[in-house]
Amino acid sequence: MKHHATDAHTLAAAYALGALDDAERRDFDAHLRSCEACRQEASEFQATTARLAAAVSRTPPAAAKAQVMAAIDGVRQLPPRIPAPSQAPVLGGILRRRAVSLALAAGVAAVALGGMAVWQTQNGQDLQREARQARQQLDAVSAVLAAPDARTVHGKAANGALTTVVSSDQQDMAVFTAAGLPAPGAGKTYQLWLDHGGTMRPAGLIDRDGTVILTGNPADAGAVGLTLEPTGGSPRPTTDPLLLMTLPA
Fold first, then answer.
1. Which of 87, 121, 140, 163 is the most buried (most CB within 10 A)?
2. Is the dihedral of CA 194, 200, 205, 210 positive or negative?
3. Average pLDDT across the chain, whole number
């Protein structure tokens, strides 16, 4: 698939997520050798994707393997789904962003939801609800990461947690990821803030490693803050910030 030279700068996210075909990857590899900005952006997307996958991963229960092995003999294999010739995919450059979103959703969902099927018999309704919520979050996260104006910043909180914020004015959303976040303690939670001209506005809660969509309007925010607050959060910060990450203009 051919792209104009100016299109190469928009493919960093697709490259990081493995959504380019072989020819495109070779072309983009060549482009990276002469473009420092794209090398940095691709590296940040790769690091962020790894953190997102690790943050939402779940350890299957000890009985999961035995349940799967016991069910193998009684589960009929479905035939392969082969599209009709008239429906052969012709994706082209105009569908690149959709391909990126699907690649991210598939990649992270495989980690996040891989063990859920074996639990369905005893936890069907709960797992279906969790799956829907996870897919909705993955859709939102993938839309931000695949946005052509996505910007990434990394930080380290005072308590040692590694953090990443990816924001998109086009999507009017920002994604916050934390790794190595210590337990907040009884009666406490971590609260996120958006700094609007010196006014800190609540932007959501996070009490463990993971990924959240920031609430509020990130478009006019100058920074993202993190504080330790009472359970349920506070209307304004009550402690010194553990983190204040300046967002790119």
1. 163
2. positive
3. 75
Q: Tokens representing 249? A: 């203009």
Place of tokens 């996210």: 13
Q: What is the pLDDT of residues 153-186, one digit of tens each?
A: 889 999 999 998 988 888 899 999 888 899 999 9
Contact criterion met (CB below 8 Å) for 177 and 162: no
54 dihedral zone (left: phi>0; alpha: psi -120 to 50; beta):
alpha
Please state the pTM of the whole predicted model: 0.54
Give the pLDDT confidence score for residue 27 in this predicted structure.
86
Instruction: Kindly list the strands in the beta sheet with 223-230, ordered across the sheet, starting from the edge strand earlier in the chain.
Output: 199-206, 188-196, 223-230, 243-246
Contact 121, 30 (CB under 8 A): no
Cβ atoms of 164 and 177 closer than 8 Å: yes
Phi first, then psi, for residue 2 (nearest 5°) are -95, 145
